[in-house]
Amino acid sequence: MNAVDDLRRINIFFNSLAFNSLKAPWDKSCYHPRNLGAHTKRRRHIHLSSSPTPVLSELVDQTEHSLAQEDYNYDSGKFAVFPSVQFLRNFPRNELFGKVVMVRFDTLILLQGMKEHKPLPENAFSTIRYLYNSRAKVILAGSWNESANPKVHMEGSLSTKSVADFLSSMLELEVVPVKHISGFMHIDVDDIKKPSILLIENLFCFKGERANCSEFAKELTSGVDIIVNDAFSESHKVLASTVGAARFCNSCIAGFYFEEGLYKLKKIIKITERPYMAIIGGSKLADKAAALQSLVSTCDGLVFVGNMAFQIMHARGTPIPMKLVETGALEEAARIVNSAKSRNIPVVLPQDVWCITDHVSENIQIASVHSIPEGWQPVDIGPRSLEEMSYFLSESKRITWIGPLRFSSRMQDKDGTFKLAEALGTLSNCNVTFIRKMEFEESFWKSKSYSHDSFLESAAVVWEVLKGGKLPGLLALDRAYPFEVDWRVVYDDPMRPLVVDVGSGNGLFLFGMGRRRNDLNFLGLEMNAKLVNHCLDDVHQHGTHNVHFIATNATSTFRSIISSYPGDLFLVSIQCPNPDFNKPQFRWRMLQRSLVEAIADNLVHGGKVFLQSDIEDVAKRMKEEFLIYGKGQLEIMETEELGWLKENPLGVPSDWERHVLARGDPMYRLLLSKVENRD
């Protein structure tokens, strides 16, 4: 199809449509788009093929693993935890050029490299380099809290300049620290114009960061176009820089390091290999009880190698020194014991331990767990425990080790659990994953038994997910459509010109259009998944082959969805977006720059954009947004009285439009056409 045919089809389309009443395609009452109750959830008929995800070591160039949204079935029932989000890898690289991009980098990487001098992940800084090479204006933000007490003054610890120097050395690029004014970050316009990368001051010093203060988040993102969240280890926290800031930017997407962490987390949750064993280290059983119950319901056996082992012994009635008993843990430990019994899975506990006295590692001896001498502190499993645990785990096909390697970091010799970890690396056809803070010796990192993919540093994130909690930092990311639509299945002829209705609601408009024009395909993009399910059911029930619906946030996903359509996009409609007058800061969020640019870029030359609202201020705002951000490609077609179209040029009213006209109120309509760029 050439450009002349495109224009001819478009003109015929608009000339042929007449204003007629719209009859619903199903025998049900109409649902008011601004006052919708929850529909009964129905079976969704949708044809999708999951999009690929790159190999972690080459996140940009290769695609092998899938990160599509999944539900994971445990023995205890369905456990769905991961939403579908937008990744930097899928974001159009040309859209980064000249944009101000704030990267929330992972503090764990920073502290590991600067303070602990540990080897860093290969892709720790790949997000920053990628954005810089894409000619984006990069601003770095992080929170390096070295003390658990937020009241501790940070003077004398890691300064912003020292962090900037470290990042400069790692990136081999200039990183310039930026000062703050009146308690908020301040970025000078002149600073952004410079080719260097900017680093704002330590966010840990600001109460607004930890309190997720809306005002602080707004100030933090002033002038920022895109936020890239690469702080996976902090995704379980509610922070202004990761959660609150997402409300004030055009896009909030996941960086390469965040994507890698999410990929590993999904591998941990989704279990396919059996037998599957979990090794549990650390303490504070009461805080992790819900997560441990989840593991009990999933695993084929549990091995305890930390202080939690003594809480399980205590629940079983085994005498242990009272100084090892955690307050409030007995009841939860008893539940775990009973759950394991009900599933008939073994729970392996240490039989002997290495102990030290007076916190002096030179004074060390082996003791039975039943007779630890007074004044001695267990720091690692003993040789008998090592032998029994190694034998028990020898037939495993999948092992997850979560928590510290040892009872105590005071034990420095390579013995006990360290030897157990080394032994697991020799198992044939066994997938072993370590989830913990990185405290491995250099020789362990150089071991040929394990690769970087065997380690996930964000233990707190994993514990949160295992206990059924949400990850606010993940939920704040833009919801991208993580699938490739098989257009050949969705439509009889995917080469027909496409009409897209953004915010399609109950679908009445598109069903009416679809019945009139069999030579066109129609697509509805709607955030309300229940409405989409309802529409897809009716598409299936009535055998409609030129109308389809997708549950998505079009602001984030319009470009990725429509760019894969093999035919031409010649019409986009946005009808009656509902502003929230009770929350002025959200009033105009539905139509943002990223959506306007995506529409303008994907429209065929001569294609149209139809805008209408019953609120004149909303219509004016939409008009301004398209003229400002349309890149000079969109111009207003002929209007009528007071600059608005009197009649609907499409001839098919939406449900809300019919309601407005029935009560005698006006509609404010506008039609734009894509022309040659005159900028």
UniProtKB/TrEMBL annotation:
Catalytic function, reaction form: guanosine(46) in tRNA + S-adenosyl-L-methionine = N(7)-methylguanosine(46) in tRNA + S-adenosyl-L-homocysteine; (2R)-3-phosphoglycerate + ATP = (2R)-3-phospho-glyceroyl phosphate + ADP
Gene Ontology terms for molecular function: ATP binding; phosphoglycerate kinase activity; tRNA (guanine(46)-N7)-methyltransferase activity
Catalytic activity, EC: 2.7.2.3
InterPro entries the UniProt entry points to: Phosphoglycerate_kinase, Phosphoglycerate_kinase_N, Phosphoglycerate_kinase_sf, SAM-dependent_MTases_sf, tRNA_(Gua-N-7)_MeTrfase_Trmb
Residue ranges that the Swiss-Prot or TrEMBL entry lists as coiled coil: none
Quaternary context: Monomer.
Protein name: Phosphoglycerate kinase
Species per Swiss-Prot/TrEMBL record: Salvia divinorum (Maria pastora)
